[in-house]
Specification:
The chain is 13% helix and 54% strand. The protein has an eight-stranded antiparallel beta barrel with strand order 1-2-3-4-5-6-7-8. The chain has one helix and eight strands.
């Protein structure tokens, strides 16, 4: 009985690890309007995916202390199929939240979004 439980636990643990969404992980953003970039950690949050800013860099590539560390950049994001995700993205440089379209292609993530009919290309993020 004990061996059966251990085997079942191992199978369940492996299945959970194998079920990770391809968007999960750390992503390096391109420079924003201020020349800053960051690393966003994407993980499940409820039934969706969220991305939290875990590190920020100035235009010279040096660590940047900012109140935005720990803030959600991506939220309410769900897969649509074919590597496409829809949700919300907050842009720190403009302090605006956009309805987002994320397109995953291997280790690159194309980010774009619109708010009140004004759209913005958020560039290509790279897996870090």
């Amino acid at each position: 009985m004990k061996n059966t439980f251990i085997t079942l636990a191992a199978i369940v643990g492996f299945a959970g690890a194998a079920a990770a969404d391809p968007l999960e992980g750390n992503w390096r953003t391109p420079r924003d309007d201020n020349g800053n970039s960051g690393i966003v950690q994407v993980a499940p949050c409820g039934a969706a995916l969220c991305g939290t800013l875990i590190q920020s860099f100035d235009s010279s590539g040096n660590n940047l202390e900012t109140a935005n560390i720990g803030r959600q950049i991506i939220f309410d994001t769900t897969p649509q199929g074919g590597g496409e995700y829809r949700g919300q993205v907050w842009a720190p440089d403009r302090d605006k939240t956009y309805n987002s379209r994320l397109q995953l292609n291997g280790n690159q993530l194309s980010v774009s979004g619109c708010v009140l009919g004004i759209c913005r290309d958020g560039g290509t993020w790279t897996r870090n």
